[in-house]
Amino acid sequence: MPDYDGANGLRESFRVVGTPNLPGRLSFALATGVAKFGIDYVLPDMLYAKFLHSPYAHAKILHIDCTKALALPGVVDVLTWEDEDLKALNLAPARGAPRPLFDNIADKEGDEVGAIVVAENEDICEEALRLLEVEWEVKPHIVNLLEGRREDAPVIRPEENLQPSFGGRKYSEDTPPKRGNVYSAYMTSGDIDAGFGEADHIAEYSLYNPAFSSHIPNPSGTVSWWSRDPYQGEGANLHIEGAVRSRERIASLYNMPNEKVIQEGLFMGGKYCDWGLRKSQQITPLLAQRTGRPVRCVNTREEMYDMQMNERYVYMKVGFTNDGIITAVDDFSIADNGVRGSSTFGNVGDLVQGPYNTLSCKNVRQRMEIVDSNRGMMFVSGQHCPFNWDSLTMAIYLIAEKLDIDPTEIARKNLHGPTSKDDRNPVPSFDLCIEAGKKLMGQEWHKSGTKMLPDGRMHGMSFRYQMCPRHSGAIYRCKLEYRDGVVHMPTQGPLFGVYNAECNAMVVAEELGLNYEDVSIDFDYREPFTPMGGGSDGTTASAWAMKECANKLKKMILQAAINNAENPPPASRMGAAPSKAPPGPFKGLQPEDLDMAEGRVFIKAEPDKGVPIEQASEENLFATYIGRPPLSVWSTGSMGQILDVMNTAYCEVAVDTETGEVEILRFSAVADPGLVLRPISLESQIDQVMYFSQGCQMLEDYIYDKRSGVLLNNNMIEYKKPGILDVAPVERQFLETRASNAAYGASGISHSLANTHLVIIAIHNATGVWVDPPATPAKVLKALGKI
Question: Which 3 state secondary structure label does DSSP give 237?
Fold first, then answer.
């Protein structure tokens, strides 16, 4: 529902919000290369640290002899997992009980395990690591999920038996215990057998989602040092640059008050929904404490192939009628559990927040096997979550193919109404997205293999829909100051690729009648306000809270202007500077008689009478607000049971059936995020997810040696990603129904347009054959029977 609860939530006109191409406050620093990231900090007398990395996919260190390494000139310290200092540091992983930051078990090839060396430079670190005498016990490994789920597969983590969960939700009282390497999750609704009994047709198909890695542009790492400053209280202060988002996790790890952890740097690079802390980001405070010197530890590019999405096999059975109504859905998935500490966000979470919630059909069964593996780590969440969304996208396409009906009409027939699965009314946002999308595409849908382009290549197209979710349920602690005639918005750093502070400043400017440039964004790590919460879509929630704060400050400024008129500052003494706030024409008025616009405070009834905002008062004013907007329909637990704002995406390809080459002619996106706060941020978000979608469907894949479990392509040459010449054009159109309940009716879009099979479906529409991603030319030709 719209922003009924917020101040000016139904505002009809905007001067600042929605303005295109407003630069980020720190964009110049980024563009010119002067931005200083955590790993760019260089301090006098700084040491360097490097971890021992496992050459095996799964192994245990029995013993390490450090004698030769410690004797190497330039080596300052060598720690092993047996050091008491390390044992005191416990992680709170994405799942399971706390465990040591560092131990002697390697869960994957390249894992940081057993030892870390501190030396005068990185070359000495490398040499010292080679001098360590390590006794390894090599253990069985699993890098093939289908083999790992077999009854006779070696059990790689017998000590773990934690049942899958998502936000504390139970899936089924009869969920079986762990079997070998396999956890099970199960959810069902309705009567699945009766649903298939009502069907005229049953489609059975499978999908494969390969794991992929969209690299963080700046390798993770930190520089830490300790200091003592009586102005900051008793005890040592920890300085750390390069940690994630806020200081709380580091403070907790080292059992310190938050105010004693100092993180001043403003830049850390894009994170892509990756909120995990690497060991290199956590270990340096301990090393600096032990050595009494600053310590730097940074991952290399080869060490940054963590997964944005885990591997998954999906087996689907969908019943539908002759008029395209879905009557039953049976989804059986096999998902990668990853190494210890991996997130379950994209596994069992999909059972709760997946696409079937948006269907009128109530007969849904979801079964998932989650397989322990030694493939890799996924941190918290990936861009494509829910990972199983395109299971439904493919169902809609297959029904359309079978019945020769436009896929958009199949989607419309099956989408429930705004309020529940029982609601048969249309979703206005969805209908508007479909109408705009058809105009944007400019052509009619066709069955597979029926349209040839003038150059002889086959033409294909595809469609999908999604919700525009707002995940954030965070509480925001906002503060605004009017000081020396200027409005200041203090906020935490660092910047990590989401321009949410700018969106908040735009809202402040809107409410106070200022220009965007007139609001000073003051970055300070000590401030309580952070505009983040749940994801980039949390921007619209923090902006709602900041809107409340701005209106409190506005009332204070208007009252101060009246006070200034009724009690003008005393006349300046000889030689003293004149008052900055000569009295305005507001004597005898009330705050509701005044307004602010275009940088002025003025009388509503007589707009020509007023003063510039910097002359409104000499007082320094201070407004705070603690709270959040009403929870979004997504975060109230419905997760698709209630629908407000939607988006649609389209893909058009040309396939050369002689060479197998696939060209993405264009992506198109029509999105209704409720209201667009900062257009360039939304445009970039959509460009980003289409880039990810192109990569995971056309190029990206992990290649393992089956015998050793070693990842063979963790380099930028053999791990293929789209280059600048490969990137497909993206057409975008934004709708603004203001149907959500964050700032001014905005919701956000999150990563809901990221997809795993939009290109794959378009290739089938062109050729009539299915190709598993990544759709390389060789795979296309093989599917066509030409090799």
Answer: strand
User: How far apart, in whole angstroms, are the C-alpha atoms of residue 334 and residue 311?
Assistant: 9
Rg, Å, the chain Cα set: 29
CA 593 to chain centre: 44
Tell me the pTM.
0.94
**Sheet order of strands, 237-241 included:** 75-80, 112-119, 47-53, 295-298, 221-227, 237-241, 261-262
Contact 632, 740 (CB under 8 A): yes
Report yes or no: 500 and 531 within 8 Å, Cβ to Cβ. yes
Q: What is the mean pLDDT of the chain?
A: 90
Question: What tokens were used for 300?
Answer: 């290399």
Beta-carbon count within 10 A of 123 CB: 11
The residue among 508, 540, 510, 507 whose CA lies nearest residue 675 is: 540
- If DSSP codes are grouped into helix, strand and coil, which group holds residue 290? helix
DSSP collapsed to 3 states, 373-439:
CCCCCECCCCCCCCCCHHHHHHHHHHHHHHHCCCHHHHHHHHECCCCCCCCCCCCHHHHHHHHHHHH
**CA 516 to CA 528: how far, in whole Å?**
22
**Residues 628, 631, 634, 639, Cα dihedral to 10°:** 140
DSSP secondary-structure letter at 82? T
The mean pLDDT value for 230-237 works out to 83
Task: Return the C-alpha torsion angle 697, 698, 704, 705, nearest 10.
Answer: 140
Element holding 555 (H helix, E strand) = helix 538-566
pLDDT digits (tens, 9 = 90+) for 514-552: 999 999 999 998 999 988 876 667 899 999 999 999 999
Rounded CA-CA distance 3/630 in Å is 9
Question: Would you call 619 exposed, middle or buried from its count of C-beta atoms within 10 A (0-12, 13-18, 19+)?
Answer: middle
**In the 8-state DSSP scheme, what is residue 629?**
P
